[in-house]
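hi! just following up on the protien thing from before. the input was this:
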Amino acid sequence: MPIPFEPTRSYVYRAARYELLPRIAEIARNYGEEPFLLREISKRVLEETYTSDQLEIRVKKAKSDVTQKMRNIFGFYIPFLAENLKVFENLGGGMFKNISIEEELAEADAVATDIESNDPGIIYAYSFPFIRKNDGRVPIKVGLTTTGDTEARVTQQCKQTCCFEYPTVLKTWEVRRVAAVENAIHSTLEARGSKR
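and the predicted 3d structure came back as:
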């Protein structure tokens, strides 16, 4: 189900991340290992998806009276998310290239957490004020940190994934085997059909 259009920055973020980037990535596969101008593909996808009037709507910046066109906000978020979510490699000058499967596997190996380790740490759960609901059911992110600083970890994570607003940490738990506990939580959520 498409995200309903609304002239807000949070809409641009969600649409860029969950709807437009997957379409752009599909088109970019045709380039293989060859560099391409991301803005050319983005422009085509935006014009196929939105009317000129929608793209020309001006939206206020947070804590400012300055406004920007929706087109320009998409122009910021698409390459920002593409690079930070590791969809494409940024070569500079607007040029990007697909990340090879070998590079993706190496990246996944580098960040994998060993659930057999006995490292102590903190399990945390957070959500965003914008999407919290009154009925008690809230989409949350469950994660871990071994540094002892939950706020720093959540801040780092949000910088890497380009959050549209700063999250609220709902709860933290200090545990002995942090990776195993986090894995157990995710497995339980998945078994109950609550993991997405």
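The chain has a mean pLDDT of 83.
The first helix runs from residue 9 to 28.
cheers
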